[in-house]
Specification:
Elements (H helix, E strand, L loop, with lengths): L1 E6 L2 E4 L4 E9 L3 E10 L6 E6 L5 E3 L7 E6 L4 E6 L8 E10 L5 E5 L3 E6 L1
Parallel strand pairs: 2-11
Antiparallel strand pairs: 1-3, 3-8, 4-5, 4-9, 5-6, 7-8, 9-10, 9-11
Length: about 120
């Protein structure tokens, strides 16, 4: 059994910063990709940032230069540093991880979501 627990969301003024954390726990042998998604009301869920087990990263064009994804493999944790926040960044943010628990296959896991609200 694996769980992803998110923290760090909240209310911030435009131009401010937040750091989101997502910690995986349970029966973990290895973690492959770890991603951050977000979903605003009335909009589709979108991929914000991704990081592979080797540390390669990709970002949505809308957040490039402002957000940084990182991971601490010793802590089974992924972070999203969010700088220069804009009202358009307001959404529920979800973390994702592809995790192997020692078997043949890896499986997808999702965090519970954390609200980020950016005021103008």
């Amino acid at each position: 059994q694996v769980q992803l627990v998110e923290s760090g969301g909240g209310l911030v003024q435009a131009g401010g910063s937040l750091r989101l954390s997502c910690a995986a726990s349970g029966n973990i042998f290895s973690i492959n990709d770890m991603n951050w998604y977000r979903q605003a009301p009335g909009k589709q869920r979108e991929l914000v940032a991704a990081i592979t087990s080797g540390g390669y990263t990709n970002y949505a064009d809308s957040v490039k230069g402002r957000f940084t994804i990182s991971r601490d493999n010793a802590k089974n944790t992924v972070y999203l540093q969010m700088n220069s926040l804009k009202p358009e960044d307001t959404a529920v943010y979800y973390c994702y991880a592809e995790i192997n628990s020692g078997g043949v296959y890896s499986y997808d896991y999702w965090g519970q979501g954390t609200q980020v609200t950016v005021s103008s």
